[in-house]
Amino acid sequence: MTEEFGVDLEQVFRVIDSADLLVVRFHLIDRRLLVDFRTTREIGPMIRVVPRAESIEDRFRSIKRLRPEFPMPERVPSFQWPRSMPVMLASGVWQRLVDRLSSLGSDETTDECGRTMEELLQLERSEVIGAIRGADHYQTLWERQRI
């Protein structure tokens, strides 16, 4: 375990380097990052923020809907990212994902990685703001006086 990041980075890097596809679960947001490294001559890799699946079967069905050109995967490796998005950037995990995807795709793939990180950063910001302001799914330590 790498103390600074809360995960075994070498294990995470091994998953990124070897998986056909993977799912990243996050600490603060309820969405998932789906990365599919499978390609053909016509179809590049995919990176996308997706809803949390209700079951593994649900995840397999969602992958088949998103990538019908590819066979059903035998397994979907995943890992939990226990820290914030800026820490994912600082740890090198995001760059490892981007580097592998870029090696399989085009400039468009690299652009999609940037848009995906922006989406993740925005989702995380919204969740933190919701926690501070006492959104419905949070309990606050104090209640605001309504006048």
Features:
147 residues, alpha+beta, four-stranded mixed sheet, 5 helices
Could you outline the blueprint of secondary structure elements for this entry?
Elements: H1 9-18, E1 21-26, E2 32-36, E3 46-50, H2 56-66, E4 78-81, H3 85-91, H4 93-104, H5 107-133
Parallel strand pairs: 1-4
Antiparallel strand pairs: 1-2, 2-3
Helix pairs in contact: 1-4
Q: How does this structure look, described?
A:
The model has no long low-confidence stretch (mean pLDDT 90). This protein has helices at 9-18, 56-66, 85-91, 93-104, 107-133; strands at residues 21-26, 32-36, 46-50, 78-81. The chain has one domain (9-133). Helices cover 46% and strands 14% of the residues. With 147 residues, it is an alpha+beta fold. The chain contains five helices and four strands.
Give the termini separation: 50 Å
> Helices and strands, in N-to-C order?
HEEEHEHHH
| Morphology call | globular
* Structural class category: alpha+beta
- Uncertain segments are none
Radius of gyration: 17 Å
Please report the total strand number as a whole number: 4
Strand content: 5-15%
- Read across the widest sheet, the strand sequence of neighbours is 3-2-1-4
Q: Which range best describes the helical content: under 10%, 10-25%, 25-40%, 40-55%, 55-70% or over 70%?
A: 40-55%
Q: What composes the largest sheet?
A: 4 strands, mixed
Helix count equals: 5
Tally of discrete structural domains: 1
Q: Averaged pLDDT, please? A: 90
